[in-house]
Amino acid sequence: MKKPIFAAGLISLCLTNLSTAQVLAPNAKGVSMGQWHTIVRDVQATEKFWVMLGGVPSKIDGTDVVKFPGVLVFLQPGTLASSDGNKGSAVDHPGLNMVGGEEFLGRLKSQGVAVDPIQGRGPDSGYIATPDGLRIEMQGNDNDVAKRPLLSFAGKDLTTEITADHVHYFLPESAPEEAQAWYGKLFGANPLKENNRGKTPAGDLPGIRLRFGVSRDASLAPTKGKALDYIGFEVKNLEDFCKSLEAQGIKLTAPYSKTRHKAFASAELIDPWGTSIELTEGLTKF
Fold first, then answer.
1. Which CATH number goes with the domain that contains 176?
2. Would you say the pTM of this structure is higher than 0.85?
3. Which pLDDT score, from 0 to 100, does residue 16 have?
4. Which of 231, 283, 235, 257 is nearest to 89 (CA)?
5. Which among 37, 93, 116, 222 could bridge 127 via Cys, Cβ 3.0 to 4.6 Å?
6. How many domains is the chain built from?
């Protein structure tokens, strides 16, 4: 996949005012999508990339963040071993949803961004990549807002041009349904089957759809240290939620803390397939 080309003075292509972008209200278990925490070599270049897509730049605890309806994209400076994004890990790529996808992608191409077609899909969808090679699926909907997976947005106003859409897992052949059940039990992800044959297990949370596909790789690397280092769920009453997880036998790799971050409480765990997850309480105010 070709890397995006960034022209001097790159500006946002999204005309819609997204100043109200934020984490969505939680589901019945108190959970919603919170963040995509990325490791980046060049914060300035990567921020330009996400702002070009329509995100709104901000800072949280001194870390650069770009906000989209449904998710906060954290840009943590660091060193990556390779430039192939999350290839070979359980989380292959995240996705954004566009109103008027063909026109939107055309504007990206006019700014020098390489757009790779998606097999079996039309010109309103495609893959692009961040400066660090993290693949982003741009999912169009032919200007029809009603085609969006409404469960992912939990009543959020869907008139904005771009929103968070999904996180796509690539798992061993035997694991997708197990992962669907695991995320459903722990986080209340509403189970469904999608694609044109209704065969791909998925789960909806406010702000996101979790898609559990099958990997072509014989083994999977952890997401830790990859371009998309971990995903984050915002949780209401996080301390009690963590106690409930531990009572179910879930091991937290970092216990509940109100001081690990200045602006929000957090805890950490790793799913059975190597996906690092941060649980937070407090990102809804950003």
1. 3.10.180.10
2. yes
3. 38
4. 231
5. 116
6. 1
- SS3 letters for the chain? CCCCCCCCCCCCCCCCCCCCCCCCCCCCCCEEEEEEEEEECCHHHHHHHHHHCCCEEEEECCEEEEEECCEEEEEEECCCCCCCCCCCECEEEEEEEECCHHHHHHHHHHCCCCCECCCCCCCCCEEEECCCCCEEEEEECCCCHHHCCHHHCCCCCCCCCEEEEEEEEEECCCCHHHHHHHHHHHHCCEEEEECCCCCEEEEEECCEEEEEEECCCCCCECCCCCCEEEEEEEECCHHHHHHHHHHCCCCCCEEEECCCCCCCEEEEEECCCCCEEEEEECHHHC
User: What integer pLDDT is reported at residue 249 of this predicted model?
Assistant: 98
Among residues 53, 29, 21, which one has the least CA distance to residue 203? 29
**Residues with pLDDT less than 70, the chain:** 1-21, 141-160, 195-198
Please check whether residue 170 lies inside any domain of the structure. Answer: yes
Residue 141 lies in a domain: yes
CA–CA separation, 138 vs 58, rounded Å?
22
Dmax (CA) of the chain: 53
| Residue 228 tokens, joined | 């998309």
At 2 the pLDDT is 43
* Residues 136-157 pLDDT 10s: 999 986 544 444 443 344 334 4
201 in Cβ contact with 180 (< 8 Å): yes
How far is 166 from 60, CA to CA, in rounded Å?
Answer: 23
Structural domain harbouring 86: 31-285
pLDDT, position 270: 98
